[in-house]
Amino acid sequence: MIEAGFNLVSQFLSELFASLVSLLKVAIRGRHATHLPDRQLLVCSVLGNGPSLKESLSEQFDFIRQTEIVCVNNFAHADIFTHLRPQDYVISDPNYFVFTEQTTDRDDIRRTLYVFLEQVNWPMILYVPHFAKGSYLLGKIEQGNPLIKVVYFNYTVVRGFKWLVYWLYAKGLGMPQAQTVIIAALALMINRKFETIYLFGADTSWHEEIRLNDKNQLLIKQIHFYDKPKDVSHQPVYSDAHRQRTFSMASQFLSFHKVFRGYEVLRDYADHRGVRIVNASAKSYIDAFERESISQSVNQ
Q1: Residue extents of the structural domains in the chain
Q2: pLDDT digits (tens, 9 = 90+) for 189-237
Q3: Could you name the domain of life of the organism this protein comes from (predicted)?
Q4: Does domain 2-207+246-279 have CATH number 3.30.70?
Q5: Which end of the chain has fewer CB atoms < 10 Å from its terminal CB, N or C?
Q6: Which residues contact 138 (CB under 8 A, 6 or more apart)?
């Protein structure tokens, strides 16, 4: 009984402290509140870039086309991008926003920019964190393609009392920790109040591709559905800008923990907002969301 009482007091004080820190962060960044557009349909599909998306696009293409489509990061590299013509696109990778015309080692970002400027000929909303404002990439997009509307979201990570955290989420003043772009995309779509959000291509299977070389360097092979197998190999995952040291195994698995914990936070928030999230990925390690077989039609 005494131990349980100490645990309750400790939890309360921890949540109180986290709430106060979150309110301080919001007070500093509150002028950057997120203002989201209305949903276009009742149902949306969030497409991750995991290898299993290839199977989902083959078998569920017609279903996905009937929903509002949300793509992320480098999805534009796929040939199917211009056939899907997604209404929404979320980029949260900070490397996109330090990219300049002089950058020589990010051909992937250059390719995404080219597709946005030269091939997107339909209305599309691009969601990026507020700190991206004024970046070279956003300047080129806003000047070069009037069909792409940029929406800035407030990526202020907030924690604390659940009632407070949910209120800050709903007001666009805070978000869960988005360890992956999928978490950011789901948080945004929950706040757009879709009735159902289907998640595809969220394999979350990076642990299957971890290797350790004879120098104790951590290597990961990051495979996307649009990659050609011969072009993908195990690469060091560096923890510093000078590429001298890779992440430790402990820190890498802590990062994985943050990903899966983020999905649990989103599940509870979606329940609070009356939004249903279905993990329809052909392969996935995410256990936070319900799974079900997908029919080929959807009420709109």
Answers
A1: 2-207+246-279
A2: 999 999 999 999 999 999 999 999 888 888 888 888 888 777 778 888 7
A3: Bacteria
A4: no
A5: N
A6: 97, 128, 132, 150
